[in-house]
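S1.2 Input.
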Amino acid sequence: MRVLVVEDDQRILEFVRKGLEEEGYAVDVAQDGDEALDWPAVVDFDAIVLDVMLPGRDGIEVCRTLRTRGVRTPILMLTARDTVEDRVMGLDSGADDYLVKPFAFAELLARLRALMRREPVLLGTTLEVADLSLDTVTRQVSRAGQPISLTNKEYALLEYLMRHPNQVLTRTMIAEHVWNFDFDTGTNVIDVHIRYLRRKIDDPHDLKLIQTVRGAGYRISADPAQ
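S1.3 Output.
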């Protein structure tokens, strides 16, 4: 999943970015309000972590502007302000959740997972396609009851596929959600990771779930006729 982190405090920014990347997220960053408004115009993020106190446009204005522009991406607002009035202002500006500094990174992760579970295609915490199961909380993956060990990037790729079952996902769509802005689209990294996933998920089984759509991209489906 791809996340935009908007934070002008370099220490906090690097702490959040490093932690999210270690969990397998693709992360892009912005350090002021104007930059924060530019990113969603070119990238479809799965979530935005937005600090309130920013130089220039503050997080409240950024959030309101994004919602006015029709950006529906879940927004988790970060702030050192802890009064009821501040929380109400943040939520009324269009934020989906509010986290007060200082915070535990585990709580930030849990809140991001909760926001992403609001997508219509993700009901509860478990994704399933045929006998393949992925738990978005524990990050455990299994097929036919047998656990499967994945790297962080393999997990992120599989989660993205399973959030969109039976849908053709182009390489560009996959790159935008699983890798960050620095990803070189001229490489075959996506195809390599798809091969890794197939070896672990499909090779031991007769029913192949990860399908290549020639000239278009990839999809995950339990229907062999897809």
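S1.4 Remarks. The longest helix spans residues 10-22.
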